[in-house]
Each structure stands twice: as structure tokens, then as C-alpha cells.
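Supplementary Methods S3. Complex input for the zinc ion-bound model.
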Amino acid sequence: MKAGPFLVFLTLLTIVAAPVAAAPASPPGAHSALKPPVIFQTPMSPRNASYAINVALDAKAHTLTGKERVVWRNITDTPATDAWFHLYLNAFANDHTVFMTESGGQLRGDSFDRNHWGYCEVTGISLADTGAEKIPLVQVFPKQDHTVMRVELPAPVPPGGEAVFEVSFKDQLPHVFARSGFAGTFNMAGQWFPKLGVFQGDKGWNCHEYHANTEFFSDFGVYDVSITVPSDYVVGATGILWREVQNGKEKTLSFHAEDVHDFAWAAQPDFVDRTETWEGVKIRVLMQPGNRGSIPIYFASVKEALADFAKWIWKYPYPEITIIDPPLNGVGAGGMEYPTLITAGASPFLGRSILIPQITVVHEFGHQYWYGMEANNEFERAWLDEGINSYYEARIMDKWYGPGRSFVDDLWGWNFGEQDQARIAYLSASDMDPIVKDAWKYYSNRSYGAVTYFKTALVLKTLENMLGQKEMDRVMRAFFMQVKFTHPDTRDFIRIVSEAAGKDLSPVLKPMLYGTGTVDFRVARVRNVPDEKPAGYDLSEGMPKLYAKDGVKAEKGTAKTKAKAKAKTGKADKETYHSTVVVERRGSLVLPVDVEVTFADGSSRTEHWDGEGRYTTWRFTGPKVDRVVADPKDKVPLDLNRLNNAWVSEGNGAVARCMTTRNRTLYQTITAILFNVL
Ligand SMILES: [Zn+2]
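Predicted complex, serialized as C-alpha cells:
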């Protein structure tokens, strides 16, 4: 999912949008087959939670009536005595749910429409395939609201054993809010079917309530979903469409997906339906008619991300990726990821300079890796998807548009980069919460966004700066390849990247991931002391004798001191100075830093400090120190205040450069204030 203020911005830009003209529906190609195709000859995942679902949309009432058959295999070594299901849409049943209480009906700038509540009602659940009659199961609701349902099993499912559930359900879609719902004729079915939690052996079922800040967690499986909609509706869904059956005014579309852990779909009669391919991957865009001008942007963004991920991590293995463009009055459905389906956000009012459509598509596509195939527990360790993905989002955008212009590209001559935006967001709530934390326990939604998304992205940028980009790519690829189609946690990350890097990175990573410490490097003191002529008594020769005023021995000056005295009449820059430079590290986060010292003769040297201790001192003898910059190459993007990173001697030409830094910081401060207001 894309972070908060991002979509607020889009909302603001779309709020004044005019209604769009309807376009004729684009019928999908005819498909007919008897059984779904095999996508992967060898399964990529354990496939221990598979769903076969038949669902029908009532396009007027925005209800979904469905039946599902869930085949679950116990892949732990502990017998399971019960089963826990998520009923996510019950988060929108009333204003006393956990989600509504925590969010106050506000999320990412979107407001809940209290005239259109939603729910997911399980109208029947039974255990099938037990060799006996179907065994009806009794629903209980063990948590604070009805977003989690538990059923007791008549007999434990042993390790390696299977349970088959038959569930009938009815959904009422709310008006689009927090990813799902309807808006006019647009229907976004996300988190719409009764869905198993994750059984974790002796820890039981991991099945949290739907919280305002949390996303999801589930096991991999095969999905076969048949969706019945009015015949003029265009449907985009997870997986591939393999069969389409017309039945009077309705049609049933069958989708098949393998090695995924969720299934989402969208339906609307007037989607503009476009398809392109990239190296065998079918890219399908379902666009709002009013946004058709942005279709090439969506394709270009997906292709950019497909190419970069193929190069840096792994070639996208699925045959298709679908991009849904939600309507202007359903923007809360935008900027969201599901397996092989993402939702984006464009607006004809955005212009071409603000790169939000590109960034959103790149971000949501990145989730195919960091969420889709990684499948971490998003409730508890959201940094593993949102944070890592934000790092890749910035890298792809920086590579595509150039650093410093990857967020705003030439808006009346003004540019702004992803790195700047990440820093601003981080600064808005840098130290309230650590990165590793249950998502619903964050101090605020802003702290969750600032830390989970942006602090993580900056931490990974810091790691990249320490390791070098090539090495960073190697360790991140190693991490992905080892954890794909599993449920990795923070420990896996630290262990694998350390192994791949050939050194223990936990002393660097742990404080940044588990701690709330911050860092601020500051040039604390610079002193240039001229190689002073001695004053006072000269004791070197017999009787004490006062030095002369200019430091030259009153009677018999040496050649050296005479030369020095002569030099005094020349340029001051050529004088010798004893200089002291002190750089301070504020905050408790210990990070190494480079310090660039430039001298009056134009020469410079780069010193390295491991960051240990509160400050460090360098002493130089030679030309006067003219300028000191801590972290000249922005290798520590977590540095809270960059305004105090530079020192220049008075009257130095470099002041201009520092002023530029200052203006940039000032600008960042203003934007940060705006960010906070939003
Ligand atoms: Zn995201």
C-alpha cells in the first residue's frame, strides 16, 4: 500500500474533478476450456491454503454472494484443534469495530461514508471430505469484533493432515474506504472472502483483527475463482482468465492463480481495457475513461519496474499483472497491492511533472516481491514489505528520472526527489516508534508511515552506502531468493544479509531496526591558529630575553624565522596554521561518517569517523581550514539536521554552496510542515 500523505495529495488534486464520460465497455477475449491451465509445473510455494470460490455480484446492491471450498493442510508439527478465519469486511460493519475505532473513519485522507456500511456474513460453514456427512461447524468470535471467526474442529488435524471447509457467505460492500468497496458502478473486491489465518504450530493461529494500520498475512495456495457479473461488466482479477461463459444478462468469468496468498478483483462496465506485453508478461491496464491519457504512463511504469526487479532481484514469474485504476470518488481503493493485481491512482489534473502515477505503479508492482512472494506477516512486521519496497520504489524512480527529480520533475523549473520526500516523511515522526513493531501498536498513523515506510527506506539506503550498490544488490537478492514463498521475519533478514555480506551486520542493523535512536552529525568547532611567532621570554640561549614583537629573535634571527616573517607580507593563505576540527554526533544512533575538510590552498581530504563517542577531533598543520562538511555525499540520510553539517570560513566562496544547502533545508522544512498538516 502507498503511504498516507501521498494519497491525500492525490485526493486533493482529484477532489474538484468533473464527472467523466462513459466509454463503451471493452469486451475481453473469448475463452473456453474445460479445466484451468497449469501455470507452474513445479509449485513454487507450499500451497497449503487453497480456495475454490464461486461468487456473484449484485451490481445494484453491491453485494457479493459466494460459496468457497477451502483446502487447508497443516504444515506444522503441531495438531490443529480449531481454525481461525478473517472476515475483514466486518471492519466496516459499524463504528465500534477495531478498525473504525482506531481510524475514526479516516484513512489516508479518505473518509468513511456512514451511509454505506459493509460486512461479511458467514451464512454456513462445515467440514467436508471427512468420509462422513458434512459436519456443520459453530462460529465463535474470539476477538474484539467480528473480523475474526473461530471454529472448533471435531477432531484435530494432525501434522501433514488436511481439512476441507465449505463456507457460504454474503458480503455487503461499503462505499470505497480503506481499499475495498464500491463507488458508482466501480466495485473493488479486496479482502472480501472468509480467509484462513496462518497456523503457527504451538503458537496457534496468527489471525489478528483488522486494524486501521495493519495489512495482511496468509498462506500460499491455488485459487480458482469464478465471478458472475452483469454481462457488460469488465473484470480484472488476480491470476489468469481462462474461461468465460455468457448466461443471458450475466456472465461468469473463471480465474486461476497459483502460488499466491490472496485474490482480489475489480468490476466496472466502462473500464478502458488495454494490454501490452513485456518479455512474456502480459500487462493489463483497466483504466477509468477520464484517465485514458495516463495509460502509457502505467505501462511504462510497470515495464520499468519489471526490468529493474528482473535485474536486481528475480524475473517476475507470473504470466500476468493487472493494474486497476479506481475512479475519482473511489480513490481509497487506489495504491494497493494484491497478488498479480495492483491498484494505482491517476488524475487528469495532476499534470505531467508530479510523478504520483508512476511512483504508485512502481510501488505497488514492487509489492509483488515484497509482500506477494515474500509473504511476511504484515500485521506484525510491516517493514519487511512496505519498508523494503519503499527503498526499491525510490531506487527505480531515481534511476528512471534521476535523483533529485524522481518525485517532481520540472514543475515550472522545480524538482524534488524520492530521497527528499522520504527524509521529510521520516523527519515528521522520527523517534516515536522502532521499525520492528506490531503495526497496530504505533503511536499514530503518521508514526507508522514515517517509520515503517520511510525510515526503513533510509536505513536500507544507509546500508547500500556502506556496502556499495553492487554488494547491496547481492545481499538483497540473497535475502529474497532464500525467503521467497515463506514467511520471513526480522531475524531472517539480519541473518541472511550478514551471511551474504560475509560479515555480521547486526551491530549496524539492530539499533536502526529495533531502536528509536536518531543521529545528527554537526560540525561543532573549527579553529585555525596561525603558526604563532613566539611571544614572551626566549630561554634558549643563556639569559632570558624578550622576543621581539614580530616573533623574530631580537638580534640573531634564524633563516627560518626570517623567511616566516617575510612570508607574513605575502598572501595570508600561505601561512601555516594549526587547525582543529571537531565533529559531534548527537543522538544515540552510532553510524560512521565521512568528513571532508577543504583547505585555503584548495586542497582537501576526506576523513572517516566510525561514529564511536560523542565527538571526534582532527588536527592539521598547514594551510588554513576553509570548509568542513560532515557527510558530503549524503551517505547518512537518517541525519536529522543537515543544516549543521557544514562549516565555512568567513568570506569564503563556498558560502554560496552552503546557502544552497540551507535553502534546500528550508524548503524541506516548509514541505515537512505541509506534510504534517496533511
Ligand atoms: Zn506499500
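Residues 493 and 507 are 13 Å apart (CA to CA). Residues 1-2, 363, 367, 386, 389 surround zinc ion (CB under 6 Å).
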